[in-house]
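Re: the request from the purification team.
They wanted to know what the chain is likely to look like in 3D before they choose a buffer screen. I agreed to run a prediction and write the result into the notebook, where they can find it.
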Amino acid sequence: MAIPREVGKQKKLTNTRLLRLFKEKLSLTQLQKDFLFGTMLGDGCLITSRSEKSALLQVRQSVKQKEYVLWKYSLFKGWALTQPREDIHNQSFYFRTVSHPDLMKIKRLFYKGSKRFVPDNISQLLTKPISLAVWAMDDGNGSKTRCCYRISSYGFGELGNVLLQECLERNFSLQTDLYRDQKGFYIYFSKPSAIELYTIIKPFILPCMQYKFASLTP
């Protein structure tokens, strides 16, 4: 059930019957869930509604990553009332979905209050290559001088990173090391594991994000 453009421009749209009917038709697909499981470990953001019964997805990246934002938007186009747009104040490109109870269910898995964390059952959530690919494209970086890869998982502390390491080994047979710098803990893939990581997620890596994996390609 699409909302006409003229309706979408009205003020206080969240109070309209039409929007309520629109939301009732929405349900997360497995692909959308797999995407969310990956981006919740990376750059994704779920914002709680005033009622605290639903949440909306906000995707915001540098303007340089416009193509990446547009790909994410393509997965949730049916959930957004407006197209992605540029924020000239901070040189970012972003979009938001409508708020929905299904998104709140995902938020409860990864948030305690306003702080994000790694759930104890992450090994039951991060199971698909596309989830791993989204996480790697969001927060991963390769080296310009050697064949390795790292994911900047600083926000999850030592315990959260250990849970992620266990998940990577259990679900993808990926061996990793846990290192610490001035920012905190991060996950490191040495050459064999970095190449295996790339092999697993290669079908889902967007051309615009290929630069992050340059050291892993022949």
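For the purification team: Residues 1-13 have pLDDT under 50 and may be disordered.
Please add any questions underneath this entry.
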